Amino acid sequence: MKEKQHVQAIPSTVLAEAQTKIEEARTLLAPYMLALTPAERRELPKMGEKTIGFVEKAYAFARQNPALNPPFLDITTFGVDFGDAHGLWTVLNTVQQLEQNLSDTAMIVGSEAAYQAALVFYQSVQMAAFQDIPGGKVV
């Protein structure tokens, strides 16, 4: 049998404080957040780990070589957008790591402790009912 991984209860005060801090972060960022439709998400070019480096270099070169910038390129807006994209990417990575760890822990706790314990109890009650042990059929 596999060794139990979840051996320590998470205090309700810790969970409540974590939830409060997550709500604080959501409230703090709310004025800057945007929502997209699924179609809009599909249409936009995606910026990821590799493209951030490309955008960073392009922004640096655009600032160093203003004569090469097309007249319709607003370098100030470019800088604001790049700064926010880079900052949000950092926050997003942290949140995604937290989400993965929360998901893994919830899966272990649910599978290992709660669900398996419920199955053991259920099977015990079934056996008790089958053997006409008092209370077995009622449960």
Report a brief summary of the structure:
Helices cover 69% and strands 0% of the residues. By secondary structure, it is mostly helical.
Describe the overall structure.
There is one protein chain. The protein is mostly helical. It has one domain (12-130). Helix content is 69%, strand content 0%. The chain is built from four helices and no strands. It has helices at residues 12-29, 38-43, 49-64, 75-130. Helix 3 packs antiparallel against helix 4. The two termini are 28 Å apart. The relative contact order is 0.07. The model has no long low-confidence stretch (mean pLDDT 90).
Counting DSSP H or I runs of 4 or more residues, the number of helices is 4
Low confidence ranges: none
User: Beta-sheet strand percentage?
Assistant: under 5%
Main sheet summary = none
What is the count of structural domains? 1
Structural class: mainly alpha
Helix content: 55-70%
Whole-number mean pLDDT: 90
Elements, N to C (H/E): HHHH
Distance between the amino and carboxyl termini = 28 Å
Shape call: elongated
Oligomer: single chain
Overall number of strands: 0
Rg (C-alpha, Å):
26 Å
